[in-house]
Each structure stands twice: as C-alpha cells, then as structure tokens.
Amino acid sequence: MPPESAPPDPSTRPGTPEARAWILIRYIGQPLGEVIPLPPEGLDIGRAAECGLCLPEPEVSRRHARLEAASGGATILLHDLGSTNGLYVNGRRVEAEPGPVALRAGDVLRVGVHAFKLKRLDLLDRQYQQDTGAQAALDGLTGVGGRATVLAQLEAHFELARRHQRPLAVILADLDGLEQINIGHGPEAGDRVIRAFGGHLARRLRGSDPVGRLGGEEFLAILPETTAALALNAAEDLRAALAGGPVDAGEGRFVRATCSLGVAELKPSDTGGGALLARADAALHRAKAEGRNRVAQAP
Fold first, then answer.
1. SS3 for 215?
2. What residues make up the domain containing 89?
3. Could you say which of 111, 152, 261, 279 is the most buried, measured as most Cβ atoms within 10 Å of its Cβ?
C-alpha cells in the first residue's frame, strides 16, 4: 500500500494564486515598514519614473534590477539590469548578470541605500504586516518615523557606512520656543508647528533619508552617502523653510516658529550611532547657545 501523501500546499492549489504572495518589506529607507507586493508580471527597480519601485537617488541606476517569479511562483529571481553600483543580498555583493540569482524568503536585498526583506505571506499575514508595521514605524502626530524606528535606522546606517567606508551625516533639530507657543496660543498651535516641521522634513529631504521624531520638539534626520558640507546645506534649507513663513495655528491665527539644528558627520572615532548622535546633540546645544534659529556643525 503506497504511503499517504502530504496535504497539498494551499499556495500551489489551482485557482488560488492569491493564497500566498511574495512581498518586499522596506527595512532601510522611508517609509520604513512599507509592504510592497510583487506583481505577477514582475517588478522593475530603478531611478526611472516608469519603474514599479522607483528609488530616485543617484546611487541607483535608471533601470537597476528586476524581480520576477519562477517555478509557478515558488521562487523569486533577481536580475541585474546593468546597474553601476551592483546588488547586495544579505550584505554580500552578488553577480546577477548575465544569469539571475534565486532568492529565498528572508533574504535582504540592498539597492543603493535602500534595503528590503523578501517574504512570502498569505493575505491575512500581509494585511497584519501592513497595519502593525505602519503603527510601529510612525509618529502619530507628524507621520514621520517614531523614536524607536529612527534610532534603529541610525544604528543600521552606521554599520553600513562603517563597513563600506561610506559617508554618513545626521541632523538633529529642535524647535525653538515651543513652550511659549503652547502658553500663548494653546497646545493645538504647538502641535501644528510640530506637524509643519515634520512636513518640511518629509518634503525637503530625499526619500532614502530616514527621519523621525525623538520626542517633544526634537527630530532626527539620517543622511546616507552625505558629507558634512551637504548635510549643512540640507539643515539650512530646513531652518529657512520653517522660519520663512508663519504656521497656521487654526481659528484664523498664525504663529512664527524657528528651529536650531546640529549636524555631525561620521568619524572613525565614532563607536556607534549613539556617539554620532551625541556629537550632533553637542552642535545643537551650541546653536541654541549662540542665539537659536541657526545651524551648527560638530567638529
């Protein structure tokens, strides 16, 4: 008598192509925790606007890579489309040209400064991942990253920059006089100023630059592949954007708001992301002491 066969995998059952689906989860880059479904026709990744996953940074080639399902959806193949900077899987460079590389669930794909984890989930798991990922990743008031999220991103980018000897800078920002705004105009006005600055961070920095609210009126921006000089320019742009116009405080009221910012670039002596952040914090305190509404650089 032949042995009983195992019950069929629902993901391979005819007529149920949606039972299990491949997804990418954004691990480095914004929005952190984003769930990106892999369509049946495959997914092109690159800087070009027509790519299904557009990453508009100079480190990414116009058409960088392609992911497509094979073996009836059981495997994902990674193709290099002639990228300049190559592809990395689980921290190691892979050769995906001329032949593709087969990926497995759990593999981490890095393209430029972005990193994505490949997973295979059923529909309920996928929805749960989207819901809980968004809740855990984002600050409820501003929509930028939360404290735990951005600090974890800092450590991840610190390790990447140190391992590959690439530049990395951070901007630590603090809103000036928010307590006085809360006293004079009410806490809703203060919340609107916080939201306004969060909006400037989201619009004026690159999509690959993780940003987050550390708490209260303090924000952190992480700038991969960025020197101190470029980070200073970005910080000054943020400062001028907030100071350049009044913030709508509601009920026909407008308030003026400014911020102070500290900039630090990764140094060989930095022992971790916390050391880099501490130097940015010292620069921020100097900007406050020198009169506020200004940018200071860590030595």
1. strand
2. 20-124
3. 261
